[in-house]
Every structure is written in structure tokens, then in C-alpha cells.
């Protein structure tokens, strides 16, 4: 389980004369496991898998204080090492370098000014009820990644996180210790996004969906692009497309098949879609954006790019079948309220 924790702010004394720090795993005191699935009495009505998950969560909560204390001590040692190296470099003394893979060896980030684009990107998290707890955990990490990538530059968009509510918000407020409340230059909405009333402004809104018949050839400043914030492994067909059509928003898909062939599921994560938008504004080329953002294991075949947008088409290999859930079932139980838009 990966948790996002805020830096320690205590003023405890730190070790002196620290010259090097190795990037070793945190030394958390060993504790006996809290459960044994072979001998334990599983409550009636609970599956073995669900019981294991519950016990693992309890085990983590019991060891969390020890883990946090070990990490706090490690941070103090790293901070002391960096302070000593800085002092030694100023006085001309010999500096003992830390291990290459140590966090203490990281090069400080050079400050730079972001080029803030006149483009808005909305991450629509209004599908909380359709995800499992594991998928919801994954989405929370992807949302954090979107915010992080938007700060790294060289370009930044006007980022909005909408419908951050229900169990997803609970995770941010508990496990992630309200990390989102510290974010800057981002709009966070617990409700759904609000549509413009002017039809000419609405024409500049595009909801990205892999099920759309339209292809997004270029990105334009002054437009609003909506990315569906859901982790579903491709279970739901036409989910984002149907929501966009009911709201009167035009849809489009990324030109993936024109440039690359994806291995496995033809589904991109929320943060990958967001990073692709940022990368296109940086390089102005979809092929380069795909190759720079997507992991190598995801790209099965690189298609030849000739004369700018003229590409040699190749058939995308078929993948295993997946269970598709009709979107009508979700729409019937969760009607979209357009009165506030």
C-alpha cells in the first residue's frame, strides 16, 4: 500500500558529522503477522480474500507509527548530510559524496518560470460508484500525478479536479492526509463542473473518450479538455461519450492508432492522458508525445511517420476479450442533473 505523507516538521536534534547516507530500506521493527488464513476463523458471510484485505489493513495501521518514526529519523540524517556537504563546499573542504542512488545525492531543482497556457483541463472524477476500492486507490494516485506533472513545466494548463467527493474524497482526507488542501494553482470541486451558458463557449469544450468517432488531431489554446477520471480496465463502454452527449459537449479521441499500437488493453490511465496533452503543447507532435510519455512496455509497434501526418497504417493486434458493461445500466441508476449547468 502506498501512502502519501507530508514532511516532518519536528525540531528534534539531528546527528552531527554525517558525511554519507545510503539509500537503505526503512528499519521498521518486526512484528508477527496478525493473521493466518489456514488457522483463523473467518467471519461468516465474508470471503477469504476480503478477510485477508481487512487483516492486512489492520496490520498496516498497527505498524504505521513505527514506519513513520523510522522515516522521520532517516529524513533527519539526510538533511544533516546535505547541510554538511553544502557547508564543506562553501569553505573549500573535501566533500564526501553520498552513494549514487541515495536521496542525499539528488541535484537541487533549478527554479524556472512556468509558461501557463490559456487552456483548461478538467479531470472528471464523477464515477466514484463504478470503481472498486483498489481502483479508487489507483485513481487517487493518478490525480496526484496529474497535479505533479502540471508543476514540472515547461508548460502548465489551468487544471480543475471536479467531483472529488464520496469515497475518493474520503481517501484524500484520511490515508492521504488532506494532501490536496496544500495544492496551489489548481481548482478542486466537490461538485460536477459547470458548463458555460453561451453556446459559442460550449463549442470550445471537448470531452476526451476513446469511444468517440472524432479524432483530436491538434490541441488549441483557449479550449477546455475534459479527461474522464476513472479506473475500470475497460469494463464500461461509451461511459464518458454518453455523459458528454447528454451534456451537449463534443467528444474526441486521441490519434493513438495513427501512430502506435498498444500492447494489452487499449486503455490509457488518467495521468497518461493528461501528460500527453502537456507533452503535445511542448513538442507539437503526437508521435513524439506518445513515445515520450507512454512506457515502452505499453507500445507494441511504432508506426512509421512520413511527411508530417502521413503515416503507414498497420493493423493493431487483437487482445484478449474483456467484459463490457452497458453504460445504460449506470445511467439509469445515476441520472445526470443538468439543471445546475
Automatic annotation (TrEMBL):
Q: Where is the composition biased (Low complexity)?
A: 97-106
Q: Name one GO molecular function term.
A: tRNA binding
- The answer, when asked if Methyltransferase is one of the entry's keywords, is yes
Q: What class of enzyme is it?
A: transferase
Recorded catalytic reaction(s): these are:
guanosine(9) in tRNA + S-adenosyl-L-methionine = N(1)-methylguanosine(9) in tRNA + S-adenosyl-L-homocysteine + H(+)
**Which parts of this chain are annotated as the region Disordered?**
83-110
Keywords on record:
Methyltransferase, S-adenosyl-L-methionine, Transferase
Q: What is its EC number?
A: 2.1.1.221
GO cellular component terms given for this protein: nucleus
List, in alphabetical order, the GO biological process terms annotated in this UniProt record.
tRNA N1-guanine methylation
Domain spans labelled SAM-dependent MTase TRM10-type = 107-301
Full protein name: tRNA (guanine(9)-N1)-methyltransferase
- The organism named in the record is Nadsonia fulvescens var. elongata DSM 6958
Amino acid at each position: 500500500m502506498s501512502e502519501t505523507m507530508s514532511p516532518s516538521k519536528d525540531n528534534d536534534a539531528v546527528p552531527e558529522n554525517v558525511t554519507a547516507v545510503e539509500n537503505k530500506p526503512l528499519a521498521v521493527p518486526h512484528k508477527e503477522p496478525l493473521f493466518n488464513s489456514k488457522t483463523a476463523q473467518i467471519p461468516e458471510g465474508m470471503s477469504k480474500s476480503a478477510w485477508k484485505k481487512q487483516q492486512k489493513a489492520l496490520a498496516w495501521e498497527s505498524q504505521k507509527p513505527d514506519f513513520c518514526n523510522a522515516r522521520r529519523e532517516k529524513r533527519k540524517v539526510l538533511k544533516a548530510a546535505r547541510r554538511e556537504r553544502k557547508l564543506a563546499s562553501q569553505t573549500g573542504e573535501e566533500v564526501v559524496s553520498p552513494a549514487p542512488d541515495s536521496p542525499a545525492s539528488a541535484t537541487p531543482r533549478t527554479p524556472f518560470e512556468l509558461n501557463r497556457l490559456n487552456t483548461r483541463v478538467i479531470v472528471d472524477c464523477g464515477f466514484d460508484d463504478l470503481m472498486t476500492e483498489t481502483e479508487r486507490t489507483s485513481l487517487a494516485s493518478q490525480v496526484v500525478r496529474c497535479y505533479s506533472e502540471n508543476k514540472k513545466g515547461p508548460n502548465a494548463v489551468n487544471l480543475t479536479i471536479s467531483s472529488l467527493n464520496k469515497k475518493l474524497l474520503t481517501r484524500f482526507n484520511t490515508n492521504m492526509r488532506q494532501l490536496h488542501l496544500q495544492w496551489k494553482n489548481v481548482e478542486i470541486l466537490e461538485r460536477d463542473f459547470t458548463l458555460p451558458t453561451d453556446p459559442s463557449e460550449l463549442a470550445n469544450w471537448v470531452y476526451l473518450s476513446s469511444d468517440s468517432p472524432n479524432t483530436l488531431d491538434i490541441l488549441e489554446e483557449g479550449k477546455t479538455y475534459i479527461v474522464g477520471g476513472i479506473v475500470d480496465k475497460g469494463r464500461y463502454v461509451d461511459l464518458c461519450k454518453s455523459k458528454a452527449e447528454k451534456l451537449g459537449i463534443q467528444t474526441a479521441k486521441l490519434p493513438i492508432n495513427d501512430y502506435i499500437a498498444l500492447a494489452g488493453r487499449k486503455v490509457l490511465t488518467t495521468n497518461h492522458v493528461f501528460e500527453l496533452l502537456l507533452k503535445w503543447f511542448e513538442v507539437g507532435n503526437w508521435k513524439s508525445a506518445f513515445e515520450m510519455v507512454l512506457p515502452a512496455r505499453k507500445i507494441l509497434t511504432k508506426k512509421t511517420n512520413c511527411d508530417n501526418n502521413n503515416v503507414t497504417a498497420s493493423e493493431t493486434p487483437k487482445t484478449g476479450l474483456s467484459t463490457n458493461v452497458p453504460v445504460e445500466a449506470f445511467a439509469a441508476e445515476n441520472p445526470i442533473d443538468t439543471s445546475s449547468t
